[in-house]
């Protein structure tokens, strides 16, 4: 592995930017019982403005680690990461504060962004309406279903007005019907807002259902094994024949990566 200067740049969004995120030869190691453990190795990815990209791979391949690096929560061991402004991050768990209402959870993100107090409630209500939770401003977290909580978490992330939304398996804990509904919602919101999305999942059909491009990471250390451009028109359904066909192809590649990993 070649060591490179590590830099993280947060640039202001403008019409001249060529990418929402650029990862150049990124590697990441962690200290382990037997020494340094290489988790990501020489990963280079560009996410274009307004592009929806899914990162796919087996458990432990470094998908979430990569997302944390792009979010700025950790730094790469080697390589560079550049983003068009500060990314917004949405986790698998909603991470809402239970003592705050749905609206106040969103207002907290607005406060951190510097939105004046008199404007926060109106903006929070607009965001709740965007995720189709109009009228839920005063509801406590325990009054919301799992799907509704993830909608609030999405509204909070969108409240950061980032050009890049990072999503770490946000629908993995939901039942199939709720997940399918939220697939429709995130597709609609992505289309309406023009935001760039980098979405981590281990669900192949979810990756194909949502993305314009699917990137498969190899088993640890995570390297780019292959990528696919998804030319299936939106709106798509999980059960659509073209989605299922491409998902089968990607699944075979994923199984091959898992088999190769099991041989070591």
TrEMBL record:
<dbReference type="InterPro" id="IPR027417">
    <property type="entry name" value="P-loop_NTPase"/>
</dbReference>
<dbReference type="GO" id="GO:0005524">
    <property type="term" value="F:ATP binding"/>
</dbReference>
<dbReference type="InterPro" id="IPR050166">
    <property type="entry name" value="ABC_transporter_ATP-bind"/>
</dbReference>
<feature type="domain" description="ABC transporter">
    <location>
        <begin position="21"/>
        <end position="246"/>
    </location>
</feature>
<keyword id="KW-0813">Transport</keyword>
<dbReference type="InterPro" id="IPR003439">
    <property type="entry name" value="ABC_transporter-like_ATP-bd"/>
</dbReference>
<dbReference type="Pfam" id="PF00005">
    <property type="entry name" value="ABC_tran"/>
</dbReference>
<protein>
    <submittedName>
        <fullName>Nodulation ABC transporter NodI</fullName>
    </submittedName>
</protein>
<keyword id="KW-0547">Nucleotide-binding</keyword>
<dbReference type="GO" id="GO:0016887">
    <property type="term" value="F:ATP hydrolysis activity"/>
</dbReference>
<dbReference type="InterPro" id="IPR017871">
    <property type="entry name" value="ABC_transporter-like_CS"/>
</dbReference>
<keyword id="KW-0067">ATP-binding</keyword>
<dbReference type="InterPro" id="IPR003593">
    <property type="entry name" value="AAA+_ATPase"/>
</dbReference>
